[in-house]
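Lab meeting notes turned into a lecture example. A postdoc, R.K., suggested we walk through two folding results consecutively so the class can see how the record format repeats. The first protein's sequence and structure tokens come next.
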Amino acid sequence: MDLVILIALTAFIVYKLFQSLGKEDKDLKQFKHIEPVLDSLKKHVNHVKNVEFEIISIKDANLLPEVKKVFEKLLIEEKSFSINHFIDGAKKAFKMILIAFNSSEIQTLKKLLALSVYEKFIKEVNDRIAQKIKYNVTLVGIKEANIIDANIMNDIVSVKLEIISEQIITVRDKDENIISGSASKILPMRDIWTYSKKIKSGNIWHITQTESK
């Protein structure tokens, strides 16, 4: 916190100096070097504030102590990491994968799923094709998405997410007759998905494990 105050104070002094110089001398060419310094200081202050805010968020989050330690460690390596952004992205990936699974969008599945999970999904897609049935899932909405576990091993961070959603599930034959499920019944679903990535490898997470209950 002392570092933030010091940087903010420095930025404020430089800014005020620039303002006062501007009032006394309209020709500011000799002071142009101040602007990039000021911009740099402002960005650094905001960056430190964001990191501190995320540390506070992690401490206040409803997580197990060992899970909090994982995120605190991750934040040291990836200053831009945010739990809220992660959960938002994880929910979007959940929706995208359900849509891709329904429509057999193999390329989308390949991008978002780890190889072992991808092979499992593709096997189900091929089985449906062989049986000439159409499996359809409509995601009505995601009610909750809660982090229940996390770990770091060999520079790979993995986060286990419990996703509570409402879905409409039907299975139709080749003539579009419903042979299982209901087009009007909303089912409560509980999925546990594990999202993993190599630390400092960007923002692409892959689903490495799925479980439905």
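The second example is placed directly after the first for contrast:
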Amino acid sequence: MANTPYPESYYAASANAVPPRPALQDDVETDVCVIGAGYTGLSSALFLLENGFRVTVLEAAKVGFGASGRNGGQIVNSYSRDIDVIERSVGPKQAQLLGQMAFEGGRIIRERVAKYNIQCDLKDGGVFAAITAKQMGHLESQKRLWERFGHTQLELMDQRRIREVVACDQYIGGMLDMSGGHIHPLNLVLGEAAAVESLGGTIYEQSPAVRIERGTNPVVHTPQGKVRAKFIIVAGNAYLGNLVPELAAKSMPCGTQVITTEPLGEALAKNLLPQDYCVEDCNYLLDYYRLTGDKRLVFGGGVVYGARDPANIEAIIRPKMLKAFPQLKDVKIDYAWTGNFLLTLSRLPQVGRLGDNIYYSQGCSGHGVTYTHLAGKVLAEALRGQAERFDAFADLPHYPFPGGQLLRTPFAALGAWYYGLRDKFGF
């Protein structure tokens, strides 16, 4: 069977050393079989192992191969649709529960990093940058909204203040969230995998789930083995394919592009981002960036609907970077890559159960780093019989994309074109 390596990226090139993990070549029995060794799967596995479950994780390629090891590395609170939107859709009681959970993912990441001594360049502080007065007004209401749910580590910034934290003259103000921050995402997921193994969990790489035999004791088949379990957690997200047809219809893989500069040196790095906070702007099709541990700039943005890999990523992203930082015009780009995330029509995560024993979480819609860590805890609670928080997510309404899988990409691209115009002209 072919060995799928990591795609080329700055993260793969600077990953901490880890032992190779074998492919599954036997029939094994376990309490819980987790499909996917990204943040959702490993977060679930850790919480379950800490509560005495036997756990086996199947990964089609390598730990963190998908979005978990390729994303922008930013710890951003809440969901892709904020709590006020959720409240209008589901009412105050369910929104209250979801609102209380909106800031938990970042806390879980920090707890994991501390408890298992994970080396992933964790830094505190994330900035939402406003380009228009309308966006600034939105941040003011967002601060009031988040504070309603007990989230108080927030500071509104005027134009003078935001220039102290980011050397970009596009912004008229912003909001600093000190419980936001950034990490080396692949090293975080590799550290979580090592934590899973330290607690007795087993991870098989190069072991794609090709078929699930449903029933009282479900069985997950791989090309060379199978896992019989009491429960299955499906955590493949944008890399799940058609393994579970019910989940494929209501979601769409999308690609986002990231570039990384050559090392900038201490002086230039400090000039761009003096406090080493990460930044994302408030556009619908947003740009995001941060410094790495070795003082490179990671800059991402853009969405490719349907998850095709664009031919020249640098040509798409470099102009965005130079618009923010014209002072980088002579800086070389060392890495450029794309990674897929899973978009839902509502832009809210899809959580649920198939039959009595197959659980799933997917569709973070670009807000995955924090949400997936929360999802692991919520899934583990549900398997232990505490389903209140699981049900709050499972009861969110979800809809198939108009026109089914054939037309979902053009429809979404049309929507993105419209919102791109809104960003451009500020309406």
